[in-house]
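In the current project phase, the collection of sequences with tokenised folds has grown. A sample record is quoted in full directly below:
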Amino acid sequence: MALVLTLVALVGFVLHLPALKYKFVWDDNQLIVNNRLLAESKPGEIFSRGYWAGTAEAEEGPVAAYYRPVTTLSFWLDLKAAGLNPFYFHLVNIILGAGAGVLVALIIWELLHSAVWALLGGIIFVTHPAHIESVAFVSGRTDLLATVFIGVAGFALLRSFRKRNWQWWFLVPFGFALGVLSKETAILFPLLVAISPLLVQCRAHRLYWLLVLVLVIIATGYLFLRGAVFNQMLPVPTGLRALDLMNIVNTFGFYIRMFFVPFEHRAKIPIDPAFFRLSSLSVWALLFLISIPLAGLRPRFRICLWGYFWTIIFLLPVTNIFPIGPQAAERLLFLPSAGLVALVIILLSRLLVAHHLVRAVVGGCLAVVAVLFGLDTRNRLPVWRDEISLFSAMVREAPNSASAYANLAGAILRAQPDSAIKLYNRAILLDQGFTRAHINIAILYSEKGDFRRAIHHLRLADELEPNSIRVQNNLGYAFLLSGQVDSAVSAFARALDLDSSAPEPRLGLALAFGLAGRADACGSMFARLLKINPGWADSAKAVIAQLRLGCPSQAGSQERARLINRLGTICFVLGDTAEAVSYYQEALGLDSLCVSALYNLAIINLALGDSTAARRLINQAVKIRPDLRELRELRVRLR
């Protein structure tokens, strides 16, 4: 068995080695790369927040209520160990994937007591093409960790039966607790433990009920912990209709078909109306649900029911009984397929048990299948190399999915903004209620200076999500960059009404006050913002530079000079005197009669101790506007 486990681990590790060169993709960027909250967290804080905390998805959609602190903690540990180096994250995933294969082999060993069949089962598991996403996608670690921990618990349980040693029970609650904290789909494991003595045909220890009770307590504690974090123990749907039940059956059948026919890959599986009516997928589900219990009526096949119930209890939570986001995903098969592999191996190993030649042929066929699986895995693996290859595959494999086009647009928008705009328009054509696409295309239009289209898309997004801080914030910046300062102030104020602690709209409001000539209000807003994080000064300067570049060339020189002068005042409020002087001088170059710029330069020169230059500037300003009291008072001070 030591040799068997080593071979399984080596095959799983070597097969996925190319993934070590891959980048962060898709959800990795939100969950890890751009998640400041994760980087700044302490380990204990991770258990008090949701899985998507610190990301744009934290309060949106069905994924908002995911609670997976052990997975998040593993990302945190990776960050501390290697920073944002994707090599290390992928290495951990590959090791976990190989470890899951080892545990599947151990489970089959405990069920059959055969090293040969354990080897075949472990190899089938680590080479299975449907498992590529879980291993090559860093965020697929949720399924890897859940499978490893539940695999440890399942192995310990079966070993306790075979060895008749209750001390193995201590590993079962440990594995279950870590598994359910890695992914919520492990929540039904106590049910499998409760019926396992019947399934493996052994007499349970008289204290076995204590083990089941401990697992039920852990499951209940997990639900209460979720309730404390989300104010909701489970994402319970509003009601189950006949249409929903058909969707559940078809999704279940889809995963069964995916396991037995895994060569048709789809990186994106959007919600499909076909899942809501009778189809061939329903036949797959019914065949599986009915045929295995019928086989279990024969004593020599009865032990396969353990893998059967493993499959069902871990597949049901991802069949849209609860909303999970996508219709289905390859990575969601990872944990259930451990039971499917065990089930298939048991059935084949006990097929025509007296005919050794037949069993040898069956074993040889399984070896050939494992080779075919491995070849398909190596062929499919490069899809996860980077975001362009991944999202291009999504568009190719799901041409009617709006999010596939939006994801590809997001991957190329910096290098090919015009192509990204076309992709976002395609996404909107497929789904006019796609808020994220409206927001992102608006940002691109803003960067191109087409504020009319940008504001149009943001107003549509506002109709779709009237209480979205993100929409209001982007709308505010679009108004700001287009010169509609009053509208910008209104949008930023609305965003702050929704969340008074949000820094982005506070920054925008400060800039809008500066452009409106309300220097005192601008300074007050910046003082509060920079007190929280001085780094926002750099963000403010970046927006100021963008406003400078976006200054409309068709505007008159006086109007442009007034805008440049106010940008200088914002720089002065931020404490960048040199940049402020540069802007004031530029304003005077556009309009030598710009009194505000003359006055501001005079104030700066006076502060720097150059009273001669200040006097010259203020005298020039008084000649232009002798009626202004501020100018006359400053000239008196300089005499």
